[in-house]
Amino acid sequence: MADSSQSLTNNKDIVRYPLIDTHTHFDAPVFDKDRARQAQRAHQSGVEHLVLVGYLYRHFDRLYDVQQFFDKRKFASNEADLANIDASSIPAAHIALGLHPFYIEQHTEAHLDSMADMLDKQRPLAIGEIGLDTFTAQMKEPEVFAKQQRFFSAQLDMAVAHQLPVMLHIRKAHAEALAILKEHAYDAKTLGGIAHSFSGGEQEAKAFVKLGFKLGVTGQVTNPNAKKLRRALQVAVAEYGIDCLVIETDCPDMTPISCQTSNDNASALGKNQGQSPDDVWEGDKGSDSHNRNVPANLPLVLASLSELLAVDKAKLAQQLWQNSIDSLGQSWSYPSPDSSAVSSTGEPTTAQ
């Protein structure tokens, strides 16, 4: 496949909507080969801010390394062809720290203690991704699930102590997660928070929004067969308005359907198969043969959501920006949309 990043041009008829990618794993090794180019493409597509989200303690330092990579001098030293890149032409990168429930057997009490120490020394943007996951039979084992619940509550305690929003990972455990949240001192209406990559039904959607969480919408919304998700979003918006949503890529996963180049839908982080994320795509970092999602694909989520909700893209983009900063406790100013090409076809480039 040709590198369609070469199609980036200056077509004054295309509007670049400022966007915030509220959830990425852009620190993953699958981006090591072309992170600078993908960061530049993301900004050209409208992404002004992106969040690097933690999931394993041993990778927390990597998050900070990649955040530093967003310094233009680091770009120049890593990719010679982008030696003249300017810091203003890439998104700002932020960090969330969390111990992901799917990898609960790899987490220890010492990791919780060390994470608490890090929060005192290096205040992140948020705590996440945290929550509950019973996707596999093993994750439903009483001891395993009890450990998930314990770590979830402990990280909610950290969020309260440090007055930080949380990013929830809830999969096939919505009722149990809601029960913990309702009993806990964490208040999303005050601190913010995102139900990342929301996958529940109509009632769950309304329940999380009622608690004060925004629903994170990924490239799944671009799939017309994702009827349960699309209906849940419509129902939530009908009751609470479009201020209950944020968008994300969850890259390198959740690739928009129009960008998928193979039938390989394996999770780049190992979340579908249960293997360690370090074992996924080994030796295949950045290959076009897999459905690697990239931050530059975020406008495709905006476009699909705009169509699904029958809301003008300009209005939706500005509201999503406000929703994002509200949920993350920030005050980033909304830039004026500008006319600049994303690709020669008038759509965001989708090279993987």
What does this structure look like?
The chain has 352 residues and is α/β, with parallel strands linked by helices. The chain has a domain at 101-333: TIM Barrel (Alpha-Beta Barrel), CATH 3.20.20. Helices cover 36% and strands 13% of the residues. It is built from 11 helices and 10 strands. An 8-stranded parallel sheet has the order 2-3-4-5-6-7-8-9. A two-stranded antiparallel ribbon has the order 1-10. Helix 4 packs parallel to helix 5 (142-162) and helix 6 runs parallel beside helix 8. The longest helix has 21 residues, at 142-162. The N and C termini lie close together (9 Å). The model is unreliable at 1-13, 279-289 and 339-351 (pLDDT under 50).
Name the features.
alpha/beta, TIM Barrel, eight-stranded parallel β-sheet, 10 strands, 36% helix, globular
| Strand order in the largest sheet | 2-3-4-5-6-7-8-9
| Radius of gyration of CA atoms, rounded to a whole number | 19 Å
Q: Please identify the structural class as seen in this structure.
A: alpha/beta
Q: How many beta-strand elements?
A: 10
Q: Tell me what the CATH architecture of the domain at 101-333 is.
A: Alpha-Beta Barrel
Q: Estimate what percentage of residues fall within beta strands.
A: 5-15%
CATH topology of the domain at 101-333: the name is: TIM Barrel
Name of the CATH first level of the domain at 101-333: Alpha Beta
CATH H-level superfamily of the domain at 101-333:
Metal-dependent hydrolases
Question: What is the mean pLDDT?
Answer: 86
Order of secondary-structure elements: EEHEHHEHEHEHHEHEHEHHE
**Shape from CA axes?**
globular
> Helical stretch count?
11
